[in-house]
Amino acid sequence: MNATGTSYPWLLLYEHSINRYPEGRSLAFVAIGTLLILIYLTRATSREGDKGVLRLSQIPILGAWNFYEKRIDYLTPALEIPGRSSSFNIRNSKVVVVTGEESRKKFFGHKNFDLNEGYARVYFGQTTPVKEMDPDTAAGQNLNRFSKLISPLIRNETLAKVSYEVFADLDRVMESWLVAGRLNPSEDIYDLVFQLTLRATTASEISNDPSLVSKISRLFWDIERGGCASAILLPWFLSPAGWRRRIALVRLYFLVKGVIDRRIKSGERKKDALQHLLDDGNSCGAIIEFTISALFAGIINTGLSSYWLLIYLDSNREWKKKLEEEVDAFIGRYGTGTGSISSRLAQIPITAWEDELPVMDACISETLRLTLHAVPLRRNMGADLVLGGANIKRGDFMAYPIDDVHLRESFYPDPHRFDPGRYTESQKAEDKAHWTFLGWGAGRHPCPGARFAKLEMKFIAALFMCRFEYRLVNGAGKIPNPSPTPDRNDSQRARPKGEAVYFEYKRTEIRALDTMI
C-alpha cells in the first residue's frame, strides 16, 4: 500500500514538517524512534517478575494497551499455569491477574474485594485515593444498593405482569421482519435483548417509543466503545472515542432525568419499573444511577449469549431437536387458549419457566460457558495480602479471567465443544472444584439480575423457535464449515470469527400450533 495514502495521514504531516523546518529533523527522528521503541515494548513477550509472578507485556508509563484491544489474547500467558499470578499496570495502578481454585475462592469470596472500584478504574479511568478508602463501608456497598433497587422488579408478581409486555415487544419486532429472509443474529437478536432490558428496568415512556429506544442504543454503544485503550491510558489525549463516550454519558443522564422529571411533574402513575422505584422513595439521582447501571449490567452478556444460543442449537441439531420437543410439550401443558403464540407463552407462570425447562437450562449454561469472555475485576479495600504468590497491597486491583475455569480441560473435557449434557448430575463440574461455573457470578458477587436475564433468554429462544424455521448460513448461503466460534477478543458482541453468519429463516407457527390442538 502507498505510504502516502489516506491510510497514513500522520506520515504526510511528518514529511511536510521535515521539508519546511529542516532544523526539526533531529527532534522528529527522536520522536519516531521513541514511538517505534514503545511499539516494540508493547509487543514484547511476557517475562517473569519478582517471586515467580509473570509480568505481562505493556507500554512503559501507560500500561497494558493490549488489555483493551485484544483482551483474551493478552491474558492467555496468564492462564498457562493454574494458580500462578501475573500482573500488569493501568497507568500507575497495579492489576494482579489471579488463577486457580484458591485464588478464585478468595477473589469471589473475600469481604474486602470491591467490584465497583475495580471496574471504575480499569474501564472508566476513575479511582478512589487509597487514603480515602474505607473497607467497612466501601466493599460491596454499590452492588448491595443495586441489588436492593432491582429486587422489587424481579419478584414473581412483577415479572408475571411484565412478561405480557415483554412478549408483546418480541411479537411486535418479529412481526416487523419479513415472512422469509435473513437475519444478522449479532444485530437483530441483540436488539431484542436491548428492548427487553429497557422494558424491565426503565419507564414505559422509553420502552414504548422505538425512536427513543434507538437513541438510547446509540448512546449506550458510544459509551461502550469509548472504553478503549486511548481513552483510558491517554485521558489527556481526548481521543474521538473518549469524547463520544463523555458526551453520550451526559446525554443519557439528561435523557433519563427528563423522563423521570416529567413523570413526577405530571403526577401520572404507570405500571412500570420507574413507578416501582419512585413509590419506594428513591431519589431522582439514585434512579438514574440504577437505570444506567442496569443497562451495562444487563445487555452485553445476555445479548451475545441469546444469539449464540440459537447459533449453537442449529450447529448441533440433536440438541435443537431436544429443545424443540421440550418447548412444544411445555406449551402443550400451559399455553391454552386461541390467541397468538406470544400471548400463550405470556400466560405461562414464571415458576414454570424457571423450573420445567431442563434442556433449555442446560443449553443456556453451556452457551454462557463458551461465550462469556468477561474478566471480572476487584480492588483490595482492606489490608495487604498474598494471593497466588503475588503481594496485593491495599488499593491494588485484581482480575480473574473466566477462561481459567470455563475452558479448563480438567473441569470441562473437550472444552470448546458445545455439549449441554455436561450439566447432568453425573457430569457436573461443580463436583470437581469450587465455583467452576461463573455464568451468574459467585460468592459475594452473584449477578443481581440473573433471574430476569435467564427469562429473557428463554423467552427469546422459545418464541423464535415457535415462530420461525431457521438455518445458519454464511454470506454465500451455505452452511458454515467449520461451525462458527465466538471471537473472544470482541468484548462487546463476540461476533463469529472469520466470515459473517446469518439466520436464513421463514415464518411458521404450524409446529407450535399443532401441539396445542
Automatic annotation (TrEMBL):
Please list where the region (Disordered) is annotated. 477-497
Q: Which UniProt keywords apply?
A: Heme, Iron, Membrane, Metal-binding, Transmembrane, Transmembrane helix
* Residues that span the membrane, as ranges: 26-42
Q: Which cofactor does it need?
A: heme
Q: Which Gene3D superfamilies match?
A: Cytochrome P450
Quick check: keyword Phosphoprotein in the entry?
no
Extract the CDD domains matched here: cytochrome_P450 (cd00302)
Q: Could you state a single Gene Ontology molecular function term?
A: oxidoreductase activity, acting on paired donors, with incorporation or reduction of molecular oxygen
Q: Where is the composition biased (Basic and acidic residues)?
A: 487-497
Instruction: Cite the Pfam families for this sequence.
Output: p450
Q: Does the keyword Transferase apply?
A: no
- Protein residues bound to heme: C447
Return the InterPro entries for the record.
CYP450_sterol_14alpha_dmase (IPR050529), Cyt_P450 (IPR001128), Cyt_P450_E_grp-IV (IPR002403), Cyt_P450_sf (IPR036396)
PANTHER family in the record, alphabetically? 24-HYDROXYCHOLESTEROL 7-ALPHA-HYDROXYLASE, CYTOCHROME P450 FAMILY 7
Q: Which family does it belong to?
A: Belongs to the cytochrome P450 family.
Task: Please give the name of this protein.
Answer: Cytochrome P450
Q: Specify the species.
A: Botryobasidium botryosum (strain FD-172 SS1)
